[in-house]
């Protein structure tokens, strides 16, 4: 049994829940937000690894819709504020966005932007 499509569904659902949380106000810490953003990195890697074009295409369409919502509920920032250890110049587009609605710990963590 190939678990990659199942894992894609799980990651897509996690990305959906994260995007919904951002839309309504992400109140956790900057570290939690950074961890949740990594879900999208995992999805991107899975798109490359999955063998089945049909499963990948269906899930990619769903992720594209979620990505559009994420873009709508966030604002572009040139220099991502995340404490991420990688070189920030190689971060994907979703790392260059902060929520429009800042609340809770994340609002406090990002107050100096």
Concise account of the structure shown:
This protein has helices at 4-24, 30-49, 53-72, 104-109, and strands at residues 74-76, 97-99. It has 113 residues and is mainly α.
Per-chain topology:
Elements: H1 4-24, H2 30-49, H3 53-72, E1 74-76, E2 97-99, H4 104-109
Antiparallel strand pairs: 1-2
Helix pairs in contact: 1-2, 1-3
Please state the overall shape, judged from the principal axes of the Cα atoms: elongated
Q: Bin the helical content.
A: 55-70%
Percent strand equals 5-15%
**For the CA atoms, what is the radius of gyration?**
15 Å
Would you tell me the overall average pLDDT?
87
Order of helices and strands: HHHEEH
How is the largest sheet built, in terms of strand order?
1-2
Which regions have little confidence, pLDDT < 50, spanning 5+ residues?
Answer: none
Oligomeric status: single chain
Decide which structural class fits the backbone. Answer: mainly alpha
Number of strands: 2
Q: Can you summarize the main beta sheet?
A: 2 strands, antiparallel
Number of domains: 1
């Amino acid at each position: 049994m190939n678990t990659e499509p199942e894992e894609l569904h799980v990651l897509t659902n996690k990305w959906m829940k994260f995007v919904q949380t951002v839309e309504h106000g992400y109140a956790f810490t900057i570290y939690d937000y950074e961890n949740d953003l990594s879900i999208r990195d995992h999805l991107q890697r899975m798109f490359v690894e999955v063998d089945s074009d049909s499963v990948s295409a269906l899930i990619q369409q769903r992720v594209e819709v979620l990505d559009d919502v994420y873009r709508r509920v966030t604002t572009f920032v040139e220099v991502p504020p995340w404490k991420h250890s990688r070189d920030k110049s190689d971060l994907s587009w979703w790392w260059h966005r902060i929520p429009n609605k800042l609340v809770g710990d994340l609002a406090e963590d990002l107050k100096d932007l």
